[in-house]
Amino acid sequence: MPVSRLYKLYLSPHRKYVRTLKNLLGFVPGNLSLYRLAFRHKSVAKSVKQGVKNSNERLEFLGDAVLGSVVAEVLFKMYPYKDEGFLTELRSKMVNRNNLNQLGRKLGFEQLVEYDNRMINATRQGSLMGDAFEALVGAVYLDKGYDFTKNFLINHIIKSHIDIHTLEQTETNFKSKLIEWCQRHGKDVLFEVAQNQDGESNKLFTVQVNIDGEVVGQGKEFSKKNAEKLAAEKACEALGI
Amino acid sequence: MPVSRLYKLYLSPHRKYVRTLKNLLGFVPGNLSLYRLAFRHKSVAKSVKQGVKNSNERLEFLGDAVLGSVVAEVLFKMYPYKDEGFLTELRSKMVNRNNLNQLGRKLGFEQLVEYDNRMINATRQGSLMGDAFEALVGAVYLDKGYDFTKNFLINHIIKSHIDIHTLEQTETNFKSKLIEWCQRHGKDVLFEVAQNQDGESNKLFTVQVNIDGEVVGQGKEFSKKNAEKLAAEKACEALGI
User: Fold this and answer.
1) CB contact under 8 A, A69 and B73
2) RNase III domain location, by residue (chains A, B) (predicted)?
3) Are A216 and A149 found together in one domain?
């Protein structure tokens, strides 16, 4: 074991934190301040300059991108005969907020994330874990580089905690699929609620999906949400997404 | 110069293609078939298996992710005192379809992209260039790895062809900003067109932005598009995005 690792783990004033991180990550971190930053929510961050706080939000932006890229490659290689629509959708399922929050909790982030609980309600607390997970990916990337981060994510996170085959089977979210497709192709998408039928107790909602000024799908249901879902599904069908 | 490069550039049966790519990329490509694939639009692709065609779409998925990650790091380091909202927005401006199409054209992709022009109209032809650019990034990544791709993008593409400071000044698209924020935070966003005032020649449209069932912004304008824009801006303001 190199001297610097020995020092970090057993002698440095930060040895307790280093060991906690080593248990979590499976490796001895280099630049500790990056990891501390990754676990610092803006509710406890201080302004550093020009109104920017030393919170994990910037690392989250970076980590989100690195994670997206690693997962893209994993799926690209895992499914050589699936098209890009399938890959995009499966990636969304893997890295959605909900999954990342669960992942953060499983990894024990509740002990690590610093936040002011007077400012965050119980619902929001959950989402801090996913944000911190992305920020951690950003920290690992800056500390150790892309290939290291990729191996860490594949061997330590994806293989142990994400069941890709089960996710593949879960129901498709046509709305995200459609929005993603439109963003990718530079198209404007609009979900329009047509006036629901007046004077009835069971209101029927009509939602139309309008893409670049053209209606491409429509759904009628007794809830706005379901009408929207159906309209998105029809639009995906019509566009062959 | 190593023998393999000499062979590729001067002796191999593909030497003409290798030289074209070297002029474009600034390096001698390794696996030529990846680059050929990157420039093959689905209109000229053949089915390979289970309905998947050997077109550039899968590489585009991968390249989009790698590009997003590289640009994220560039901006992260270039703007140490800007928050993640600023970084996200500036990245969208850099890698939007329009910019990538222009970039592809500047790089001379029109000579390289294979497509069936009976199946693609003039408008669509432009967007093939941006798709091919993303696919090319995917090909470089698979051929040469992340660090090489990052250096290629920074030194050969971003520094020469993208004026980040000018993009920084261009007008903000509040709608994309809002949609991105909602996707990031797992919220449902809906742009609702309330009934426009009947019987008038100058119709006034009211658009409401509904996030997770709550109206957070509203805009009234004489065009649906402008009403939507205004509503998105109000919503961004209200949410502090």
Assistant:
1) no
2) 18-145
3) no
